[in-house]
Amino acid sequence: MHKYVPISAAKSHDLEFYTRVLIAVALCGLCVGAPFAIYHLVWGNPLFSMLLTPVIIMQSLSLYLLRKRGFNPWIALFLAVMQMSVTVIIHMQMGLIGSYWIFASAVANYYIVDRYPALIINVIACLASALLAFDSADIAFRFSAAFGMINVFLFAFSAQLEKKNLELDRMLTIDPLTRAGNRTALEEALRRVKSQYTRAHIPATVIMLDLDNFKKINDSQGHTTGDQILRNLSLLIQSRLRPTDRLFRFGGEEFIVITENTSMNQAAYLAEDIRKIIEADGGLTISAGLAELRADESTDELINRADRALYKAKSMGRNWVCFDPLQDGRSSGAAVTG
Question: Which of 265, 282, 285, 295 is deepest in the core (most CB within 10 A)?
Fold first, then answer.
């Protein structure tokens, strides 16, 4: 059983997808709802026009907010509840002939909100329609059975789709050798910490790690041994990380740790602990370079500063942890230990 991941916790590229889906649903609702509202108003049924008007207004507002600010789960939830509520009222007014709108709204809910809220909204709508919109208990039962089957299918499909998306995401963001994050995942994480710093001034520090003399190991012991060493190195590093820290393979024997909500001094202790753990495990050593995120730089500049600090550690004889030479205005690299 895979872990349930709500839309609100989705990654930025997934949120872009959900935004486009919600825009499509809102546009569809407008294209259908507005003509029906006008039709009923002209042909002497203002009640339906009054019922459809708040949905049309909400869909129009949703489109505006989605274009300006992106996906918002609360807007999606409010839209799902409102359109289903109006649909149930229309069903009560029109009787059996209005039941097909319930099915259309039920399908739309699985597109714009998480499957659990969608199921709850649809079950409540089904109960309300079955109890209030039908004169015949037999027809109400048939309607409920068909509506229930559709929701079972939709819920199961949504769960399987989420599972496949998670598997695909792991394939696209996990390094197959070390099981650390790959460059794609690193770029996503860097964008997130940069956004957090811009919005809320939450600090973040990058630790760039490089296994010392790895080329000699590959040349003398072979690539199979080298691959196993890299796998063990990844496990050792991750054993020391906190839940908020993430490890990424930057390339070859280089790794990057992103420490969120962490200052330079706190990250320096973490880097030193990692250095000691690796040295004690099998005689291998690593060099590390640290750089704390600044307001006036891009994520590429942050990585470049960490790389300069790593180069400083290497030039001092390896097995050192160093700050970025330009961090906090210092003119030379500051060695933590070695």
Answer: 285
Tokens 């099915």, located at residue: 103
Average pLDDT in the chain: 84
d(CA 140, CA 144): 6
Mean pLDDT of 58-80: 76
Residue located via tokens 């973040």: 204
Active-site residue (options: 162, 167, 188, 253)? 253
How many Å apart are CA 211 and CA 333, to the nearest integer?
A: 20
Between CA 116 and CA 154 the distance in angstroms is: 11
43: helix, strand or coil? coil
Band of residue 287 on the pLDDT scale cut at 50, 70, 90? very high
For residue 188, indicate whether it is catalytic.
Answer: no
State how far the Cα of 294 lies from the Cα of 212, in Å rounded to an integer: 29
Q: Give 185-228 pLDDT, tens digit per residue.
A: 999 999 999 989 998 899 999 999 999 988 888 888 888 898 99
The SS3 call for residue 243 is: coil
Q: What is the pLDDT of residues 3-32, one digit of tens each?
A: 555 555 555 556 677 777 777 777 877 787
Residue ranges of domains in the chain: 7-173, 183-337
Distance from C-alpha of 334 to C-alpha of 325, rounded to nearest angstrom:
7
Which residue in this structure is represented by tokens 């049924």?
A: 45
Give the number of other CB atoms < 10 A from CB of residue 187.
16
Alpha carbon distance 320, 313 (integer Å): 5
